[in-house]
Fold these 2 entries.
Entry 1:
Amino acid sequence: MTLPGWLLPVIAADLAITGAVVWFVFRRKGSGSRSRQIVGADFKALTAFQTATHPRIGDYVRANWSGIPEQLPAVLRTLLDDLEREARSRHVHVDRPMLKLLLARSLAQHGIGNGTDVRHALEEVA
């Protein structure tokens, strides 16, 4: 099967236009340190924040949660408030839903609670 002669220039033009648009978008957003920003959060700062808070999350939940699923929302609410204050003090711009994701990931890595209990508890937490 051969391609029509007009199709190759159309594909080349399409690639050139797509490349120009991608280049323009990245140039407008900045290619330096801003390239690490994902959904309004600096990925590097967020990763450093998660690494720094991970051990404390495990220690806090182990010390304050008896293992009863009904008590978990209160523990996580207090912990989320504390994490939110710490993020602000470190100038890490992260919203509450992202903090919940970071917390859920940390709890899973620590092996604390089961996924269903943690998910339900985080849904109850404002």
Note: The helical segments are 7-29, 43-64, 72-89, 96-110, 115-124.
Entry 2:
Amino acid sequence: MRVLGLLLLMLPAAGYATGICEDTGTTYGAPTLFSEALEAFAVPATLAWCEERQDEGSIDEVRGTIAYTELRDVRGNVLGALSAVTGDDAKRLEEEVGVFEAVPAAQLATALAAHGFAPIVARGPTKNRCTIKGAWKATPGQQDNGFPAAELAVEVRAGKRRLLRREVGVVAEARRGDEVIVAHVRATQRKIALFTLRPTCSGPPPGYFGPDDGGSCYQIDDVQVTLLDASAGPLARCFAK
């Protein structure tokens, strides 16, 4: 099984790249569906691809993007993907994610529902509903691959009381605001499935081409999925009546 997609967009060569076909990879969006059966999030993803084309002695870039949906469980395993792509894009996606489930775009929602995916439950059923949000900590001189950076953590709070703080990692300041924190409350098990996206940069950092160069951030998304046990300890307060 493998996930969603449709998009072939031809783009000109990127002017900020230092070589042919740089700045490619997979970026992720915020999941809105969770499957209790698979214990997994359905994560929207976009694969950027690039190919070299030679024309009359010159080498040009041909770029495109492929949208798909990745199924990632609470242990961080990628279970598969679904996609509507065909032809060359299907081959490109298969090279990246392996065999995927081909689903026409109009039938994607039905296919996901068949795998048990339903809207994420963001809040518990009891009065002591906890909030889950990001917390930033900046350290002078901290860097992410040569880019100014700060540290991101996830905090679980009940009112003003902090029940849990979990470090996510270093995030490039240039991508501050691209972070994603999504929690799905599994009330019957008293567990919280937590999805986080840590946005980072690669590519030529600030100053690479001189003192006035601000750098070129090639987006790298680090996805983390974990399961928080709220049956005991401080997090049990989230389900207390």
Note: DSSP finds two helices and 14 strands in the chain.
